[in-house]
Write a structure and sequence with these properties.
Helices cover 20% and strands 36% of the residues. 34% of the residues are buried. Strands 1-2-3-4-5-6-7-8 form an eight-stranded antiparallel beta barrel. It folds into two domains: 190 residues, Porin (Beta Barrel), CATH 2.40.160; 122 residues, OmpA-like domain (60s Ribosomal Protein L30, Chain: A, 2-Layer Sandwich), CATH 3.30.1330.60.
């Protein structure tokens, strides 16, 4: 073997060692994330929506040259880019393009490999509320090989397992291993794939198919024409020439001057909306509660409301506090969007698991602690009725 050949061989050996180290480092990083992640936190950590995911890969394909048994390609670091959509459930669908350019094992010629495939990803449901979650992936696609003297295309099937770790609800890293099978020559391959996934759009205030909340129609006011010797424009029983309060509300009890008798009292309204574990969605059972709160705020326009979000103690404090804030924001959004309550009258606060009302060691207690409470406390002027 010549000196040049030895140099080239040494370079190739170093590249193989580097790639193997990269693959091992990815596994070590993911294992560390697994040990440090807070499993079963209340929040659905991985947000739904469209996402983009650039990454790296290492491919290994055997027997791609059907006419030359034993000829294959070296492992080489490649690149991949995915576009996908994560549904509001464990499923996601994505289109991935992968590219690598390794050397052919015997000749040293570069082989261009282009791989397009459409995949479905399923995140195991027991982990959808944690920072770390394993997933399964499967799909089909088309792979092409191009090198001097050889050009081939083949349809492929792929399947594998992986895991992902969330830095935030919109950004996570994932690593998976996949096996591939060519449909033309039954070529068997494998790959290790990494990606940094960013969710472009997300929504926390999504509701089910509940129709828009309808406000009750106001009963038509019948025009009453009274025949009287003296005019009484506001109908309070005191003639206009004696009435010092000409705009008294209809039905109010008035004094001898025609002014409403006012009583002062303190009123408090408490709202309880329950949520499923890991969810910030308003459902149909919340309609009546929110409608009553909206009516109360409409009746007393000088009052403000504080929406308090609470969670149980399952999972990390940071994730629980974030989920409780999202729950409070969902109720606030409904009041503002569906009932036209001024946004500056509604305040939302997420307390997480800081203020339990029941024992978190029981299922019943945890269910009770996952709640949103709306508190309105104000001094209002109530007109005494006749």
């Amino acid at each position: 073997m010549s000196h040049l050949q030895k140099t080239l061989q040494s370079k190739k050996d170093k590249e193989r060692i580097m790639i193997n180290r990269i693959a091992k480092a990815s596994v070590v990083l993911l294992t560390a994330a697994t040990l440090s992640g807070q499993a079963l936190a209340e929040n659905n950590t991985f947000a739904s929506g469209f996402y983009i995911a650039p990454g790296l890969n290492v491919m290994d394909v055997k027997g791609i040259f059907n006419k030359n048994p034993g000829v294959g390609m070296d492992r080489e670091l490649g690149y991949n880019l995915s576009l996908g959509y994560q549904y509001d459930n464990p499923w996601a669908v994505e289109f991935m393009y992968q590219y690598t350019k390794p050397e052919e094992s015997n000749t040293g010629n570069d082989i261009r490999v282009d791989y397009w495939h459409l995949d479905g990803l399923y995140t195991f449901e027991n982990y959808t509320k944690s920072d770390f979650a394993p997933y399964a992936v499967a799909g089909f696609g088309r792979k092409s090989y191009d090198t001097p003297g050889f050009k081939e295309n083949d349809n492929t099937l792929n399947a594998g397992l992986g895991a992902k770790y969330a830095f935030t609800d919109q950004l996570h890293i994932r690593v998976d291993g996949r096996g591939t099978l060519g449909t033309k020559y039954a070529d068997v391959g494998a790959s290790i794939n990494t990606a940094l996934v960013y969710v472009i759009g997300k929504s926390y205030s999504k509701r089910d198919d509940t129709p828009k909340y309808e406000k009750p129609l106001e009963a038509p006011v019948e025009e009453v024409v009274e025949e009287a010797v003296f005019l009484d424009a506001d109908g309070d029983g005191v003639a206009d020439h004696l009435d010092e309060c000409a705009d008294t509300p209809a039905g109010a009890k008035v004094d001898e001057k025609g002014c409403a008798i006012v009583l002062t009292e303190t009123r408090e309204f408490t709202l309880n909306v329950k949520f499923a574990s890991g969810s910030a969605w308003l459902n149909k059972d919340s309609v009546a509660e929110i409608s009553e709160l909206a009516d109360f705020l409409t009746e007393y326009p000088d009052t403000n409301v504080t929406i308090e979000g609470h969670s149980d103690s399952t999972g990390s404090a940071a994730l629980n506090k974030r989920l409780s804030q999202q729950r409070a924001d969902s109720v606030k959004k409904s009041l503002v969007d569906d009932y036209s309550i001024s946004e500056d009258r509604v305040k939302s606060i997420g307390y997480g698991s800081e203020k339990p009302i029941a024992d978190n060691s029981t299922i019943e207690g945890r269910n009770a602690n996952r709640r949103v409470v709306a508190k309105v406390e104000a001094v209002v002027e109530t007109i005494e009725q006749k």
